[in-house]
């Protein structure tokens, strides 16, 4: 079902010597996850299939196993903290626990929720949180196979979740524009933030847990102080159509994926768009994943590819708090040689690629009609 891009057929972007070869899929992946210790990548696609790949620097990877247990689209995947299990959730409302070594289905909760599942988050060794399209959150004890916390506080889908280092406070981002706060230890709901003007699509912890950042469908990042969850402390509008997914790279830097296919590196407090890490030309990005150590970023999009990006330079970047912000419409710096062009040329390259694709499609249609 899946093959790796061969070296004799180079991808559109040049491969860096130390980045793995793109993984080409036969169906678009909704979910990817990177192993906490080993060079392993899990991918779940729109057909419900889950795959595990090994990858290596400067070379192609290898498919280790596949699982077809989900009946509908696999929407999220996450490795357990010890790296021995892979957790997946699906539109079919099921939560699966697979063994990493051989892909064996260890646990299946068939009707975990009443609505399609959208996200999964390991909390502790036996505790797992799931969120669905109806706004319901559940925290499961896998030893019992039952939920120890159930709450429906959101009016719309839960898009993402995050938990603090102590495993005590769980945060949810929702399509109703609010962030939810739940106390796992006390098994209770705490509060909802004030609603924002657009869907919240992601939630991450930064600044050693003192700040929370939420991405939105409007391209804005909303910031909250820890223990000040009711109202935002700051907001930052990116030059982007949306922030569909977001992952922390350092204590102050996140990478965001957008509808325009561009992966941006963004510094939080001071708020700056640092530049472009990479792109899936004209294809909306579904998910991002960071390898341990923050040296490598993986991304998946509608182009049916998983791409890898060298982000090692982000850890050493220093942002001057007093440096003037660039004017709107200014240049977007390319942060890797795999990022197409830079500045206005970067977006020109995107437009040219899209126009060429459109022309090719038009020509193909004309040939067919003849």
UniProtKB/TrEMBL annotation:
The keyword Cell cycle does not apply. Belongs to the WD repeat WDR55 family. It comes from the Eukaryota. WD repeats lie at residues 285-319. This is WD repeat domain 55. InterPro entries: WD40/YVTN_repeat-like_dom_sf, WD40_repeat_CS, WD40_repeat_dom_sf, WD40_rpt, WDR55/POC1. It comes from Coturnix japonica. GO terms for biological process: rRNA processing. Keywords: Repeat, WD repeat. One of its GO terms (cellular component) is nucleolus. The gene is WDR55.
